[in-house]
């Protein structure tokens, strides 16, 4: 049996777990007797606990939460010998869509004890804010600039809606007020400048709880995948938004799907940015993205073969 550490975010999914009396937490304790179960109580808990276990060979640190929780724990485990497991309980759960992890707790516990792990890439982003402040983050799924940043901020206050419906409602609401911004995107294939509706870059195929914005993305391919959309009228955005659910939006002339080993995005007026669904900037003037290739052990990752 492996050593299992469950790090639980009770606020994931808008706090529905806490409102229901923590049934998921009770089931984890019942099905994983003897496992370490840690419940987050303040910012930084997940990162601190994961960092303390990253070099423990044979340990699986299970993130119980949404993409933000998974990202925080995965970023802390990078370069270590412990593996990341995911038991999704958030609103979007986009990273979990790319894994083979069962959703049933009993089946997931058995999976964490027996499944093989694959080495996945981890993204790094450096943000320069209009205030002059600088921040650094790691991501597993994607970074969204412009309209996706607005959607992520809106979805975090979605009230009773959860999952894809909360992101869809936020996406439609954001169309009313959002205006495309002048940006410059620089990558391996060159530089593009102009009014852009959105820029999304990352490793995850899905974003926003069900939009397949990066349909060619793989967790271990050594590339940052990019979706760039030009400014366009609302009626046209709605047409393309429908195809984005299926991942066929790249056929539209306003959309470019590319890949690069590194990216720089600048926006003089300052853009909203999300990191794995978590809002991180309201006025970012420069965003630099890079990769830490095959730096994170993940249970259930495609191509997994490590014990």
Account of the protein in words:
The chain is α+β, with helices and mostly antiparallel strands. The chain folds into 2 domains: 3-115, Rossmann fold; 122-294, Tumour Suppressor Smad4, CATH 2.60.200. It contains 8 helices and 13 strands. Strands 5, 6, 7, 8, 9, 10, 11, 12 and 13 form a 9-stranded antiparallel β-sheet that branches. Strands 2-1-3-4 form a 4-stranded parallel β-sheet, with helices on both faces. The protein is globular. Residues 1-129 form the DAGKc domain. InterPro entries: ATP-NAD_kinase_N, Diacylglycerol_kinase_cat_dom, Lipid_Phosphate_FormReg, NAD/diacylglycerol_kinase_sf, YegS/DAGK_C. This is Lipid kinase, YegS/Rv2252/BmrU family. GO terms for molecular function: ATP binding; ATP-dependent diacylglycerol kinase activity.
- Helix count from the secondary structure assignment: 8
Tell me what portion of residues adopts beta-strand conformation: 35-45%
Q: CATH architecture of the largest domain, please?
A: Sandwich
Helix content: 25-40%
User: Spans with pLDDT under 50 lasting ≥5 residues?
Assistant: none
Which CATH class of the largest domain is shown? Mainly Beta
Multimerization state: single chain
Distance between the termini: 12 Å
């Amino acid at each position: 049996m492996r050593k299992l550490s469950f790090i639980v975010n009770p606020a994931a999914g808008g706090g529905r777990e806490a409102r229901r009396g923590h049934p998921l937490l009770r089931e984890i304790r019942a099905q994983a007797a003897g496992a370490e179960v840690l419940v987050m109580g303040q910012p930084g808990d997940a990162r601190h606990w994961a960092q303390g276990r990253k070099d423990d060979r044979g340990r699986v640190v299970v993130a119980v939460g949404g993409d933000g929780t998974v990202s925080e724990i995965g970023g802390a485990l990078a370069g270590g010998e412990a593996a990341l497991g995911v038991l999704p309980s958030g609103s979007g759960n986009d990273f979990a869509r790319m894994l083979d992890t069962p959703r049933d707790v009993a089946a997931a516990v058995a999976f964490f004890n027996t499944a093989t792990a694959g080495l996945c890439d981890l993204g790094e982003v450096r943000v320069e804010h209009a205030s002059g402040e600088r921040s650094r983050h790691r991501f597993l799924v994607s970074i969204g600039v412009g309209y996706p940043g607005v959607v992520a901020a809106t979805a975090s206050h979605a009230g009773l809606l959860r999952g894809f419906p909360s992101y869809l409602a936020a996406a439609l609401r954001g169309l009313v007020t959002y205006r495309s911004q002048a940006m410059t995107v620089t990558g391996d294939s060159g530089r593009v400048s102009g009014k852009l509706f959105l820029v999304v870059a990352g490793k995850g195929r899905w974003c926003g709880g069900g939009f397949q914005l990066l349909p060619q993305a793989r967790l271990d391919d050594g590339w940052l995948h990019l979706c760039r959309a030009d400014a366009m009228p609302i009626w046209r955005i709605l047409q393309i938004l429908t195809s984005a659910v299926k991942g066929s939006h790249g056929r539209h002339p306003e959309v470019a799907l590319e890949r690069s080993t590194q990216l720089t995005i600048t926006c003089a007026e300052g853009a909203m940015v999300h990191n794995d669904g978590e809002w991180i900037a309201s006025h970012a003037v420069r965003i630099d993205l890079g990769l830490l290739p095959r730096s994170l052990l993940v249970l259930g990752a495609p191509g997994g073969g490590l014990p």
